[in-house]
Amino acid sequence: MTTPTDAxxxxxxxxxxxxxxxxxxxxxxxxxxRMTLIAGDGSLLLGAEDVLAAFASxxxxxxxxxxxxxxxxxxxxxxxxxxxxxGRWVGSWKDAAEQSGTYLATWKKVTGQWVIENELYVTxx
Length: 125
Known about the structure:
125 residues
């Protein structure tokens, strides 16, 4: 049986692949409909639709390559239904400097599947 931490780590890796493939629509099942995201520039995105629209906009940029999030730690609540993921992120473009920093994500289990409830990205470089 897959542990919750392994399941979350696997879902994170899959989102990295979908972002590299520039497939915003296939990211939908990974997000809670009411999710919030604070981007590396401090902007706030409310709801999965806003997050998906932001991804689609970036994917339309010919210079965009990918965002890669690398999990460093996953902590679970006592019931095993919520988790905090912490790690490093890197954004790359063909025609611009790479950006990177730290991220924190809140995951929750909904009908047996882990979805992202919140994400915070801090740009450090």
